[in-house]
Amino acid sequence: MRHALTLILALCLTPPEAQAQDTRATFDLRLLGLKLGEMQIVGRVARGHYTAASSFRSTGVAGALARARFTTRSSGRAAASGLAPRRYSEDVDTGRRQSSARMTYQGGTPRVIGGTLASKTDRLDPKDERGSLDPMTALFSALRTQPREGLCDLRATIFDGARRSGFAFTDRRAGAQGRITCSGTYRRLKGFSDKELRRQTVFPFAITYAPRGGLMRAETMEMQSSYGKVTLSRQ
Questions:
Q1: How does pLDDT run across 181-216, given as a tens digit for each residue?
Q2: CA 174 – CA 210 distance, rounded (Å)
Q3: Which 8-state DSSP code applies to residue 6?
Q4: pLDDT class for 177, splitting at 50, 70, 90?
Q5: C-alpha pair distances (Å), 221 with each of 1, 62, 127, 168, 208
Q6: ∠101-103-108 over CA atoms, to 5°?
Q7: Contacts for 182-190 with beta carbons within 8 Å, 24 or more apart?
Q8: Environment class of residue 143 by beta-carbon count within 10 Å: exposed (0-12), middle (13-18) or buried (19+)?
Q9: How many Cβ atoms are within 10 Å of 74's Cβ, its own excluded?
Q10: 230 Cβ partners below 8 Å, 6+ apart?
């Protein structure tokens, strides 16, 4: 009887599990209004953990000219302070070059364990990238379905296994029908070629979220590039 009472009290006093935050979205990617392809993002945040994956494939006229694709996956811990990766993988095929990366994390420090980036001799030392996010975790942090609180607070250093970049929201603006637009910048920091740095180092962007089921979900993302305006629009 004592054990039964203990179990009943534990069940009554344990707070209900936080609502799982699921993301499943397909975005059209456009440059200067021309559709280049489609990107899918799938992920879940629940019970202190997260999993996320994305894929891209070129379509239409752009796909006929150059077949491009990528897939990325990440998983790790989820807390009120943000997401912390434990594993990451990517496979990229631009039609002209192919690359891949496999990383794990120990105490917040990434370790490159496989893929073509593992053999690069000019990549940044992962030991200097403690506290960084992988590209998928950074993308998922920005585009996932999430609470309104802290929506525009994201600041992160990103390490893809070879290069370092920065991502930060700097402004928040309320819109009609409960929408919120977060704007900021993406910056190339270190490990990029001289040609890449000469072309562009700072990429201004804005993401607009709309309320959905008590949470906020990303509807559009616009970024200014040296080629013109790039837009992600949710289907």
A1: 999 999 999 999 999 999 999 999 999 999 998 999
A2: 10
A3: H
A4: very high
A5: 58, 20, 32, 14, 6
A6: 145
A7: 182/151, 182/152, 182/154, 182/206, 182/207, 182/209, 183/207, 184/152, 184/154, 186/223, 188/163, 189/157, 189/163, 189/164, 189/165, 190/124, 190/163, 190/164
A8: buried
A9: 27
A10: 29, 30, 31, 222, 223, 224
**Type of residue numbered 198:** R
Helix (H, G, I), strand (E, B) or coil at 149: coil
Whether the model pTM is above 0.85:
yes
- Return the closest-CA partner of residue 219 out of 167, 182, 168, 173: 182
Nearest one of 138, 140, 136, 149 to 22, comparing CA atoms: 140
Confidence at residue 61, expressed as pLDDT on a 0 to 100 scale? 64
Cα separation, 68 vs 61, whole angstroms: 12
Quickly tell me which residue has 């607070």 as its tokens. Answer: 153
**What is the Cα–Cα distance from 55 to 70, expressed in whole angstroms?**
5
Strands 34-46, 69-79: pairing is: unpaired
